[in-house]
Design brief:
mainly alpha; Growth Hormone, Chain: A
């Protein structure tokens, strides 16, 4: 039930990412405007999402999920009706906090069900999201083949979202820490920022996004503008990358039985460091598709495992992870904006060398020796 929420969220998100070449053409957007649509809502959500996290730790989870779900469905339908940059940006500004309440709070409920199995819970969550991301570009390709476009896809996603909201309406609300006021809960959340492990995993989550959502945001545009393929082939490229990611997320369950999550992160970062330049330098679509498939397999777990460690570092205050994630999102929102600005000045082919910083920083910042946050050796 909760996994359906993540599937829907990534289905909507993945559809937008695969359709960016079509959206940009129809609305006449520049690289800078695309980057603003990707980045600016993250800054605006700094006002609303921290409060969502605090309320989640005070037993308002069911109400937050339902309210966020209704708003999420409304913004999904509205996305297909936008007429230009201003309306597109407005819809995305509303969609971000809606997703925080609907999707983010659902994740805290899932993780709290089995505190000792956070890595596996996050692996299942990520697998559900990967399935949505894989289906998304196929929807875009199908719409193009049938003579439609991205607007028709979003028109259909709205009603589909209502079904998911109805599925979670019977979710029980969680209890809050006893004897705390709203102010005390908020201050306790902010005190977590003094902990080195919390800061470490917040940083690594944002760094990893360079090879995940940030790359996803520009991948279709890169394939069209730099690799010189058509929108349908670009959507196919996104599908190959996300499909390999789905396979990698499924394999992660097996991998975690044999080695620790942190050891896996270290080895996968080393391999991504070698493969990503191959993707950028490979001539022709076929070679790039092979490299994309390898990247999709290798960066599986780059969100699930750091997020599980962050939940472990936060202890009983899982709602605090939403608030802290919003604070860390200041960096996360800056990354796509920076890539968009570099692309406008030097070209997208140059700008997409920036994500290479992700495996480098992961290798530098991952802890060495001892135990992970949840007490397992790695």
């Amino acid at each position: 039930m909760l996994l359906a929420v993540e599937f829907l969220d990534e289905l909507v998100y993945g559809t937008r990412e695969a359709a960016w070449p079509l959206i940009r053409h129809d609305l006449g957007l520049s690289y800078a405007q695309v980057a603003l649509v990707i980045a600016l809502p993250g800054y605006v959500s700094l006002v609303a999402e921290p409060l969502v996290g605090v309320l989640a730790d005070r037993g308002r989870r069911r109400a937050l999920i339902l309210a966020g779900g209704v708003l999420f469905v409304a913004t999904t339908a509205a996305f297909g009706l936008v007429t230009g940059f201003a309306t597109l940006l407005s819809v995305e500004i509303v969609a971000f906090p809606a997703s925080g309440a609907f999707v983010g709070v659902s994740q805290t409920v899932l993780v709290d069900e089995e505190p000792r199995s956070r890595e596996r819970a996050m692996a299942a969550w990520t697998l559900a999201g990967s399935l949505g991301v894989v289906v998304a570009p196929l929807l875009v390709v199908g719409a193009i083949a049938l003579g439609g476009g991205w607007r028709q896809v979003f028109a259909g996603l709205g009603p589909a979202g209502l079904v998911v909201v109805l599925l979670v309406r019977g979710l029980p609300s969680s209890g809050a820490p006893t004897g705390e006021s709203l102010r005390e809960t908020g201050l306790a959340t902010l005190r977590l920022l003094r902990q080195a492990e919390v800061l470490r995993w917040l940083l690594l989550l944002q760094v990893a996004e360079l090879m995940l959502d940030v790359l996803h945001s520009f991948l279709a545009l890169y394939l069209v503008d730099v690799a010189r393929v058509g929108p349908a082939d670009a959507a196919l490229g996104v599908a190959v990358w996300t499909g390999a990611g789905l396979a990698g997320d499924a394999a992660l369950f097996v991998v975690l039985r044999r080695i620790s999550g942190l050891r896996y992160l270290r080895w996968s970062a080393l391999l991504v460091l070698a493969v990503y330049p191959v993707f950028l330098l490979a001539p022709g679509l076929a070679a790039k598709l092979v490299a994309l498939a390898a990247l999709g397999l290798l960066d599986s777990g780059w969100y699930a495992l750091p997020q599980a460690q962050l939940y472990a570092a936060a202890g009983a205050r899982s709602g605090a992870v939403l608030t802290l994630g919003t604070i860390g999102g200041i960096l996360g929102s800056t990354l796509p904006l920076g890539i968009g600005l570099v692309a406008g000045a030097a070209g997208l082919g140059t700008a997409l060398w920036i994500p290479l910083a992700a495996p480098l920083l992961l290798l530098a910042a991952l802890p060495r020796g001892g135990r992970s946050t949840d007490g397992t050796r790695w």
